[in-house]
Amino acid sequence: MVIGIELPKYINLEDGAPSRTQDKHNSTFTITTDTTTNTAIIGATSASNMSSTVATASTNFLLAAVENRCSCYDLTKNSPIADSRIREIVESAVKHTPSAFNVQSTRAIVLVKQEHEKLWDFGDAALKETMPEQGYAYLAPKVQGFRAAYGTVLWFEDQAALDTLKEKNPAIQHVIPQWSGHSNGMHQFIVWTALELEGLGCNLQHYNFMSEFREKVRNEWNIPPTWALHSQLVFGTPVDGLKRSRERTYLPLDDRVKIFGGK
Ligand SMILES: Cc1cc2nc3c(=O)[nH]c(=O)nc-3n(C[C@H](O)[C@H](O)[C@H](O)COP(=O)(O)O)c2cc1C
């Protein structure tokens, strides 16, 4: 039994890559690659072990996407995908990402082209207004870098939804802001990773630390007063392919992950 999976654009299969055999979950399977279509062809020895084979392959693709996600700052005003696809990705994340008690308090606004540029003009103006001259001189070129990209997703939490949840659950109201942040971050991460799979580069910003910025955003796009701005996910086609703008270092996993009762 054989299925083909088209790979994300950033995974380039080697020419003539040899077949690989993996053995996981007690199922043996082979992966061969078709470099002309960038497709992984997965063959399982029987129909009965195909589902665990596909599950393992899907998990590995998911983990590869997680590993490849990066902060990319050299972005252009182009997008390899239609705005409708960007909308679809954001809508899918907003619909399916979990939230505490299924409160669904995350909100997103997608700005592209001139609207995106306007956002970063607000960022520049807010910095100029609030930062000492030296701070502004340091940050202004960064803001111009964000402005040079294609779009930004603004991420919000709707305080009204969270207040209702607090009223219903007074005993845990002190942890609700933390949970709202967790869920909002999950949304950001999913969209960040998905946009990269589609060939866009992204970086995550937090210019909402300035009230001037928050107010300009609220007025320009008619944001409801209960929506609190959490972050700005900037995206665009990478200037020079998708790669980390800064090298990432890793702390030893043994110090960070423990398992008890297993190996
Ligand atoms: C919660 C959170 C906040 C972040 N805030 C910013 C930020 O304000 N500006 C920025 O340029 N990057 C920001 N980043 C990106 C991190 O610096 C970056 O993810 C980290 O250094 C690892 O690099 P990588 O994204 O290339 O893997 C943030 C990331 C996270 C998860």
CATH topology of one domain: NADH Oxidase
Structural class: alpha+beta
- Separation of the first and last Cα atoms: 33 Å
Roughly what is the average pLDDT, rounded to an integer? 89
Helix content: 40-55%
Bound molecules: flavin mononucleotide
- Major sheet: 4 strands, antiparallel
What is the rounded Rg?
22 Å
Number of helices: 7
The proportion of strand residues reads 15-25%
Q: In CATH, what is the class of one domain?
A: Alpha Beta
- Could you give the order of strands across the largest sheet? 1-4-3-2
CATH architecture designation of one domain: 3-Layer(aba) Sandwich
Number of strands: 8
The H/E string reads: EEEEHHEHHEHHEHE
CATH H-tier superfamily of one domain: NADH Oxidase
Pfam family, one: Nitroreductase
Main location: cytoplasm
GO biological process, one term: cellular response to oxidative stress
Organism: Cladophialophora immunda
